[in-house]
Structures are given as C-alpha cells and as structure tokens.
Amino acid sequence: MKPPERQRPLMPMMGGGWGRNLGIPAEKPKNFQATAGRLMRYFLPYKWPLVFVVISTILGTGFSILGPRIMGNITTKLYQGLVRQTHGTGNIDFAAISHLLAILSGLYILSAAFTYFPRYIMAHVAQKSIYDLRQQLDHKLTLLPVSYFDTHAHGDILSRFVNDFDNISSSLQQSLTQIIQAIVTFVGVLVMMVLISPIMTITVALTLPLSFYFTRVIARRSQKFFLWRQTVLGELNGHIEEMYTGHQVVKAFSREPEAISRFTEINQRLYEATWKAQFITSVIMPVMNFISNLGYVFVSVVGGILVTLRRIQIGDILAFIQYSRQFSQPITQLSSISNVIQSAIASAERVFEVLDAPEETEIAEPRHLAHITGSIQFDHVSFGYTPNHPVINDLTLDIESGHTVAIVGETGAGKTTLVNLLMHFYDVTEGSIRIDGVDIRFIPRRELHHLLGMVLQDTWLFHGTIRDNIAYGKTGASEEEIIAAAKTAQVHHFVQTLPEGYDTVLNEEAANISAGQKQLLTIARAILADPPILILDEATSSVDTRTEVLIQRAMDHLMRGRTSLVIAHRLSTIQDANRIVVMDQGRIHEEGTHTELLKRQGIYWRLYRSQYAHQEEVSL
Fold first, then answer.
1. pLDDT digit string (tens) for 73-127?
2. How far apart are CA 150 and CA 159, in angstroms?
3. Which CATH number, 1.20.1560.10, 3.20.20.150, 3.30.70.20, 3.40.50.1700, labels domain 32-197+312-355?
C-alpha cells in the first residue's frame, strides 16, 4: 500500500485581526537549524540579487508604512479647514492637501515598484537554486547502489523528487520577502504608533495576549483532528490505488460491493475528521474578529479623549486605526510563514537524506579488460541481503568461455541473486566473482555492465518509440542495426504490422502491446548491445509456445560463441545447454547435461517430471 501522502494542514484564509492562524500544526523538521543552513548554501551563488531583494523589500515596505500617516495629515487639514469655514475664519487649504495627495501617490507608486521587482528576482533566484539542487539529486540517484532502491519504496523516492521539491520552491520563493516585509512592517508600524500616541499603543498591545491565548487553545484542539485527517486520507489514497490498479481482480471475483463498502467506511471517517478540524479552526475567525473589534473600540474611545484634550489631531485617530490593523498582519504573517518554512525545511531534510545516502564505492585501483574471452568463476561465494540470513552459501561455479550454463531450481533457490551478484548490484559477503580471472570488484561498474547483456523476466520499456526502446541497447545504433536486431528477436514482422511501424509510441507501462511483445523488444535490445556475456533470466516466460520456439532459435544463433548464463523454469528451453546447474537453498546440488541429470533422478528429474509427466503419459 502506498504510504500516506504528506500534506499541509488546511488553514482558513482570514483577514485583519491580531494573531490569527497562530499555532496551526505543520510538519516539523528533525533538525531545523542544520537543514536550513545547508539549504541556504544553495542561495549563496546568488547573493547579490538577494541583497537587492532585501534592500528593495525594505524600501517598498517603508514607503507603504508612511501612507497612513500622510492620509491622517490630509484628514486633519480637511477637518481644520471645515472648522475655519464654519467659524468664518478661513477656507480649506486645497493646495496643501493636493501637495500631500501627490506625495501619497508617489509613495504608493514607489512601494508598488519596490514590491514587484523583489518578487520577480526572488522567483528567479529560488527556482534557479532549486534547479541546482534538483540536478544534484538526479546525479546522486545514478550513483546509488541497487540495494538503496530495493530498500526504499519507489513512490517515496518519487515523492521526494517531485512533491518535496515543489514544496521547497513554492515556499522559499515567497518566504524571504514576506519575512522581511513582516519584520519591517511590525517595527515601522510600532514606531509610527508610538509617535502618534504611546497611550493608544499600550491599549492595542493589551489585546495581543488575548489573541495568543485563544489561538493556542483552539489550535491544540484542532491539531489531533488534523493528524487524524492525514492518517485517514492516506488510508483512503491507498484503498483507491489498490482498487484501481487491481480493478480486474476486483471484477473477476465480483468484489465491487465490498470495495464500495470499504470506501464508504473510510470516506465517512475522513468526513468526520475533516469537518471537526475545520470547524474548530474556523472558530478562530469570529474570536479574533471580536478581539480586533474590541481593540478598535478601545482605540476610538481613548483617541476621542485625547482629541478633546488636544493631545492628538483628529487625523491621527484615522492613521492610528489603520496602523493598528497593520500591526496584526505581520504577527499573523510570521506565524503562517513559520508553518510554511517548517514544512519546506522538512521537505529539504527528505531530499538531503537521499543526497547523504552511501554511494557505490569507488574502485581505488581499477582493472580494465582489453580482450574478453568471457570465462566466469564463482569462488566460494556467500551472500545475504540481510545479516544472518544467507541466500547464497559457499557456492563455487566455473563457466568456460563460450559455454551456455543454465541455472534451475525452485523459487527462492537463489538463481536471480546469483545474477545480481554477477552484475555487481551487490557485493558478495564472502568469496569472489571473476571474469577472465579479474575480480569484478576491481572492474569499473560501467565497463562491467558493457560486458553483460541482460534480458529479465520483468520487462522494462520507457515511454517512447519502439525504435528508441530497441536502440537503448547501443548508443548511436543505425537503422539497419535496429532492424537486424528486431529480425533476430522475431519481432520485426510484428512491428511492421503496426500503423506507425518502428515509430509507434509505447504508452505508459507499454500497455498498448502484449507482455510477450514487450519481452521480444527487450530481447532485441540485448541483441543490439552485442555483449560478450549474456544473462537470460526467464527471457521466454511471457511468450507463447510457438514464439518461444522462434526465440529459442534466435537465441541459439545469438549465444553461439558467447558465454551465456540462462535462468529458466521452463526446462524445454535449456535442454541443449552445455551444463545445467541445479540450485537449492543457495547451494549447488546437481550439475550436468540434461540427459545426465535425468538419469540421476534427483531434483532436476523431479522438476522435469512435474512439468512434462502428463505430456509423456499422453504420448504413451
């Protein structure tokens, strides 16, 4: 089942008010400081654009902070002019008001400009930094051993490469400018409020503890429902994936009612968790509105008293109320940014975990094989995927150059493990494996893999044309070589029957061709590679009997003069092998030709009888 997808908790969008969204749960990194410092190093090559972003953000925010003060002065002059008109002592000074309006317009234009350019530059810097990090991770994946991919879910690796990068880039792109804006706004607004009236500033500050207290209480209650929601959502995702990927099995056994019932039960629990989390969180809005309005009442009352005492002007109250609304915004913004940044750093931790994973060991003194004969020696090899659980036990096997050796045995005997060791996907625990007398641990992996051509039981074809999939076996392969390989693999005629021929595009998982046709294409790819050593792991398991005969003829031609290691369950495909090795529980129990092993009436004889006894009885 697919692990639950990591998502941010739902957070309601709210307007003005003090302390909203404080304490909403977010995924937290294990080591925030170290991960954040490491992530910031990817921004160092772009330090001068970042300096411009910081300075521009400060200027843009500073210009916007001056706006309410000038608006208050305009209101005061307008009010004073009206009073003079009422008493017949003067008129409204429209020239002064126009001058202030011009200054206000200029400030807002400058503020908009200095707000736009930092966002534009920060978007470029953030995306370029993430581009560098993504490139590094992609290169890292090519250096990781096969054991890493065997022990980590492919969906989890994909999630780190896609979802976590999206989370980091979208979060950091806006966070820096928002943090600077929030800090400058908080300090600037506080200074302006104190300059207008320290008494009213204290009045506003008294409401902040109420905002923090109620937000924390509500957030603690909602957190358990958010966590419950995430758990149930992952369960629902897993159920849907299972039902849709295995829909044929569900239909074949008429299990649709059970699948629907299970979905309904999980969906009901998701509904319960979601509405409770959302309801409790939504309580923050009316509570904060009440506290905000209460603060505005206090400001208005105190401000009215100060105006009557001629301590402040009427326009100062208007400016102060606007500042008091702005005063809550940086607190809310920093709280929200804190959750976003923590989520981004948690995603960065997951990316760095892959970057810090042990790579394939470098060969200190590599050996290069100039002329390959293709002899292989397994010398007292032992191996286990986990400690104290050996899969191969003290196995010794010599394969002469140009010979075909077949490996047979029951499921779990260690046949495929033997191939993995020969490919150096894993290091042997004991003993050694040699090609032409050279230990494969001293042969560079890229060079080793060029010596070995593989056709696996599990076919792998990528999204692309048939031509591209066959040509994957050899860099720069010509059209003639591709067609020749396809003919040898008995797939050329099939390709010609397709409307687009070799230009036919294989869709996701190559679902537009049959399993046997996929196998034929992978065989053609191995033929094109033309390696001195062939490894065939159940290469004909997915084809019909007639196609199997055709492929076997092509394989006989292909294996002529090459060293071939063949793993097969269908014993009809290996009867002509130079030697057949029978494995059981990681050891070699029998070896010989097909005729010799049948005469011994051992494990191979029992395997052969289990497959062909019925046919022999019919023929008799």
1. 888 788 777 777 777 676 777 888 888 889 889 888 988 888 888 888 888 888 8
2. 16
3. 1.20.1560.10
